[in-house]
Amino acid sequence: MDINTTPNNFEVSNFRNISNNPGYNSQPSFADNENLLFAGTQNGQTEIMQFAINLKEKKRINMPTNGGEYSPQKFPKSNKIAAVRLDTTGVQGLYAYDYDNLENGKNKLLLPNVEVAYFAFHDNARIIASELGGNQLNLIIANLETNLVENYISNSGRSIHNVPNSNSVSYTLINEDKNHDIYLLDIDGDKESYFVCQLPVGIQDHCWLSETKLVLGSGSKLYEYNLFGNQEWKEVADLSSFNISEITRIAVSPNGKRLALVAETKQ
Fold this sequence. Notes:
Strand content: over 45%
Distance between the termini: 21 Å
Number of helices: 0
Radius of gyration: 18 Å
Shape: globular
Structural class: mainly beta
């Protein structure tokens, strides 16, 4: 959907269902302002899918592998895509794919021996990721060029995002009440973390509209949190008229003018 946000308004337009596909269709991320990546089911397997927004065209952009690809994201400053691959053997890892020539099937394992579950780029070399660790996820900071991995904190969540126009990354931790708290990590500075707010009960996902505003979905509604506002989640849009419910993952385009979300369609 297209979005237009002002201090007192949140307008939604051009809402459309871009997957219309049975199976798993989730984990959206914008490669740029005109192309959306997501993990989508094709022929019974999860692949890297791309939707060209202006052309209204959807296609698979990777050669099928022995496993399924998840959480596709473009490298910030190169024509490569990273995705989590879950092989049929149960081994899970982060791989790089050549965005310029994806059909050649070439890919490269990043961070050997690290079972990345969810991640976000901070820059071309560094990612912040939740790594599989027994019955929980643990947050790591990893350098893809040197393979240096720093264990940062345990019991993290799946929602990790670069904060626009800043040196910070947001991540979530599971608190004592089993709810998710959002923290900011200054990755270029002292690597200290700062508490931002708690996500609403039962919600795991968030993203950033700007350097000071967060957005999330709950049920069929969108909520906004302003770091310099009333310090509470405020309803800004009701999408029930579009026949959806149970919003989960959410992503905003680099220019802040488009929003993608994952939801169930009402029967």
